[in-house]
Write a structure and sequence with these properties.
Layout: H1 2-28, H2 38-43, H3 47-69, E1 79-85, E2 88-93, H4 94-106, E3 111-120, E4 125-134, H5 139-158, E5 162-173
Parallel strand pairs: 4-5
Antiparallel strand pairs: 1-2, 3-4
């Protein structure tokens, strides 16, 4: 779905560039407007109209090109900065953070499985941890231990500031007796 929307947006932007380019070429006389219809001939008769059309077309072309080429604002960041030195920044990917946190959580024998999703905030990173827990354990103790262990691990060992840790107990599995 996202790919189809991106293709449609790019097609519409390229169409706007083409129409604006045609209008620009007609207004500066590269393409003869008399070839297309009588109303375009009278429309481009005045020099002031030609200047306005040329300016508007250049503006539309520039805006369209900027949208296509410089669309970075909506991109999702996939890493976070952990240290800035005089030579640059040291970053760690969210995938690496998620894998480290998952392996840390899986060391606990009361956890059956875990999935971790990492996002970035201004103040630090957010973690969503989804776990399957064995049934004979306290859910409150398990979640508090997970939050404490993950926060200490990321702050002390990785230097990553944690803003929020959400733990979701997705399943509580009963053991057969």
């Amino acid at each position: 779905m996202r790919v189809a929307v991106k293709v449609i947006i790019i097609f519409l932007i390229l169409l706007a560039i083409a129409i604006s380019g045609f209008g620009l070429f007609c207004s500066i006389g590269i393409i003869s407007e008399t070839q297309f219809s009588a109303w375009t001939y009278s429309f481009y008769d005045s020099l002031g109209t030609r200047a306005i059309v040329a300016t508007a077309c250049i503006f539309v072309i520039l805006i369209s090109l900027m949208i296509v080429l410089f669309r970075r604002k909506n991109r999702i960041e996939k890493s976070t900065k952990i240290l800035t030195s005089r030579n640059g920044a040291i970053k760690i990917s969210f995938k690496a953070i998620s894998e480290m946190v998952r392996s840390l959580i899986m060391r606990n024998e009361n956890i059956v499985s875990a999935n971790v999703r990492t996002t970035r905030e201004e103040e630090g990173i957010n973690l969503l941890i989804v776990v399957h827990l064995k049934g004979e354990n306290s859910i409150v103790d398990a979640t508090e231990n997970i939050e404490k262990d993950v926060d200490e691990f990321l702050n002390e060992r990785c230097g990553v500031k944690v803003y929020e840790i959400d733990v979701l107990i997705d399943k509580v599995l009963r053991t057969k007796e």
